Amino acid sequence: MGEWKPLLVFVLSAVLVAIAYFGWHVYQIPRILKLQERGVQFSRLGQLEESEDTLRKALMLAGAHWDEANTAHILINLASTLRLQERWEEAEQYAERALGLFRKHGDPNSTMVAVALDSLVEINAGQDNSEKSDIYFKELVDVLQEEETNPEQGNPYLRDSLREKVDDLLVTYYKANLSREDVDQLFDSAKSGDANAQFRLHELYMQGLSVEQDYVAALEWVRKSAAQGHTLAEFNLGLMYAHGLGVEQDFKEAVAWFRRAAEKENADAQYSLGISYVNGDGVPQYYTQAFKWFMLAADQGLAEAQWSMSVIYYEGQGVPSDQIESYAWCALSAASGNEQAMEACNTVLNSLSILQQGQAHQRAEKLFIKYGREYLYP
Description:
By secondary structure, the protein is mostly helical. Helices cover 78% and strands 0% of the residues.
């Protein structure tokens, strides 16, 4: 037995070291998440030095305790903070590192590839490097087109938010870069039944890019794309019916298309369907249904839907009036960037008693935790 004693001591020591390391590792991950969220919120509040310092601390810990894919999220947030400080070269280095890691880890992070590309577009535009900015922009459009073909990949709300941003950038980009040959090729693809090409033609006609603005033609191509189940086309077709663009205004038809896209988890369509139920446009006014669709969109992070949840609780529409719950949703929407919520939160909070304010802060903190975020007390 004596000859086994040194080996037994060695094995037990190794096990204890492994347990201690694993425990320390597990302890650090929540700390990294908190630092990352705090860094992002500092950035939203314009406290850029605090944001940079906090994100660098998160990055240092992540290097030892986190996988590459999650570390890439810190890198892209740090790149954003540096970009806001116009420290272009540093921002570009971090954004390129993040892009490399997101690409390395494949389809589950495909939306984050688009986020990194979008960051690099802005960074290079800030440096007046139009050549590199155009290259990254073309890659960004390609990634988003691929995700529209494979909607099960990536984060649907992030993808749709980027899609909206790209649509705005397309106005400038297409005027400068889309050749007649490119347009002809797009027409050929659309006529052969390519739903993405049909949707792109719809966008060109809507905005008058490389073709004369024509809502009727835009309607024709978006109908073809929507008929093939293209989610963004379904949503845009709903918008055209709701606003009477290229077609007689028809709220019932708008709701039908909103619903098709909403059932595929398009957050903007879910939100629009909720608005339809609030206003009684195309459907009977039904606040309980509005609440349902706002909640689904809010769950995906749509700031406007989170703000609508705050309003519904404040007014007691479809749910009992609850000022504390209203404040919690208002705070979440404000943290997501909604300007109406930013202006309203203090008003809601100041309408409460001191005791209720404490309860409102506690409720907000729980709501933030549910969505993986950290609540910063005002």
